[in-house]
Amino acid sequence: MPPLIPRPSCLRTLNGSASQSPTISLAIRTFTSSSPVQASTVQQKRRHQDPYALAQSRARKAANLSRREVLTKERAAALGDPVRGITTSFVKSFDSALPSTPNPTESAIFKPSRSTQPRPGPNAPEEDHLNYFLSPNELQSALQRSEVLSAPLPESSSSFEAAYTSTSSEFNFDRMGRPVQSPEEIKRAAEERKRLLEQQHTNATAAMARIASLANGSSKDRMRVNIQRCISTFGRHNTDSSLPPKAPSERQPNQVEVSPRPRIGPDTGSSEVQISILTAKIRTLADFLETRGKGDKVNKRNLRLLVHRRQKLLRYLTGKERGGPRWEFLCETLGLTEGTWKGEISM
Prior knowledge:
Elements: H1 42-49, H2 51-79, H3 89-92, H4 136-150, H5 158-161, H6 183-212, H7 219-234, H8 236-242, H9 271-291, H10 297-321, H11 325-334
Helix pairs in contact: 4-6, 7-9, 9-10
């Protein structure tokens, strides 16, 4: 029950000065029975000041972290790495955006100057994808056209026949007073000019190969090419003709079979394409966090979001395809294990 507070008398009944007014003393009641210094309990003081209690808390934290590492390793050994899975040749090619198996029709466009040169480079013969939305055939045709345009026009023989020569002097001069060269000198100068033009064209070809190479591009350029490769590899506009259809489900007696609609353009929205694109982004982000972004919490959260988004799509595709050829082709190509979609993924 709250304490009783005396009510002051009315101001009209007061006689005399204000100093003679009766004083009102209100009892001040604190909310705690102890002083603010003694507000914390003994356990709280012991937790922050006792070195033995601090050592115990550190030991419990270290034990929890070590147990978490053991559980993570056991899950990775049983189900596989939930982030990377198994590194295949297709997944490894995401680093350089160069296909693991080059197209034989376009592989001989840029021949390497040395046979010992590694594959990911500006002169690599396996570069079927170039930067700036170029294809090797387009670049080769442009270089051939530039070679034709830069070549000099053939000199006509009438200029030599019309040249005026003087038989009375030791040297031959034309009508403008310039000395006329001998046929051997003219031939030698033409050969030198041809050799110089060939050298310039070779340098221009090498420079364009370096400019258009993905080895000299940025990570955004490589990601753009990786997305194009994922669409062409897992898009249903290509896999419908190469992969067999899945096993038919049980049909109801009154169910009418609906024929699939023809596709217009490349397939960019199916689950397989989205999973492959997310796998390329996850690998790029995971490599960045392991090397340069160890303290980057924002990108660590972005990696967690990408992994869980891929997990949802894999769970959906598991129930839809029921282990069909599309599912097997996706898991074998991208190296996806059960840890990427089963259970709870903690990072």
